[in-house]
Amino acid sequence: MTALPRHVAIIMDGNGRWAKAHKLQVALGHRKGVEALRAIIRESSDLGIEALSLYAFSTENWRRSPQEVEALMGLLLEYFTGEIDELDEKNVCIRILGDKDGMPDKQRRALFDAEARTKGNTGLKLNIAINYGGRAELVRAAKALAKKAAEGRIDPGDITEDVLASELYTAGLPDVDLLIRTSGEMRLSNFLLFQCAYAEFLFPETLWPDFGLKDYHAALDAFGRRERRFGGRNP
User: Residue 58 class from Cβ within 10 Å (0-12 exposed, 13-18 middle, 19+ buried)?
Assistant: First the structure.
């Protein structure tokens, strides 16, 4: 396999369309998507990828039907209670990106428990964006820096990109190298706006529940063939 990205981000899109195509309820499409997710996490860990960031539930997803939101919340709780043992055994470190305090009680406790249990693990950094919005993350970071400046703990003139990055949910992690959005849609949908500044983008048309290891390897191989210049020119 070609050179691997350090940080992969995935927008897992297409669960609803998969369910519709199979004449199933949307909730079953999300459940099938969780099955696809398990394989991708295991493979990322086995390959030695440093960080994997997954867009699970955005701040805008609360606008979906109550039935779909309830199904998603149930799946989140089921996932964290059912998968945490294996993830911990595989040395995976879980970090939640987003506003955990805005989640229902049971889900919030599960998220805090998953982070606490795996905090010391040194393997794959698994970042799960839940109740997350990229603009809200930047506002949150700006407020934190403004508070430090008002308290005299930082000079506004000393604020750099690195200082701002230290206030993001992904503090201490490398920027995203590869962003994959399944289902063929070509937009970021408010996901990791700062972190994806120089990411390579891939938009496979495969719906997320059908996105298997063969598709993932193809995406990683495509990344390895990209010429990355970061705004400059190679000799």
Answer: buried
| CA 218 to chain centroid | 20
Nearest to 200 by CA among 217, 176, 221: 176
**Is 13 an annotated catalytic residue?**
yes
Alpha-carbon gap, residue 94 to 193, rounded angstroms: 21
Mean residue pLDDT of the chain comes to 94
Classify the phi-psi angles of 190: left when phi > 0, otherwise alpha if psi is within -120 to 50, otherwise beta: left
More confident of the two residues 173 and 231: 173
The residues that bridge with 9 in the sheet, in sequence order, are 53, 179
Q: How far is CA 157 from each of CA 154, 160, 234, rounded to the nearest angstrom?
A: 8, 8, 32
Return all residues near 176 (Cβ < 8 A) that are at least 6 apart. 7, 8, 9, 53, 192, 195, 196, 199
Could you tell me the strand order of the sheet in which 178-181 lies?
93-97, 125-132, 51-58, 7-11, 178-181, 200-202
Q: What is the pTM of this model?
A: 0.94
- Length in residues, the chain: 235
Q: Please state, in angstroms and rounded to a whole number, the distance separating the CA atoms of residues 212 and 48.
A: 18
Catalytic (active site) residue 61: yes
Q: Which one of the listed residues 61, 99, 113, 210 is annotated catalytic? A: 61
Q: What is the DSSP letter of 5?
A: P
Residue with tokens 């990828």: 49
The three-class DSSP label of residue 162 is helix
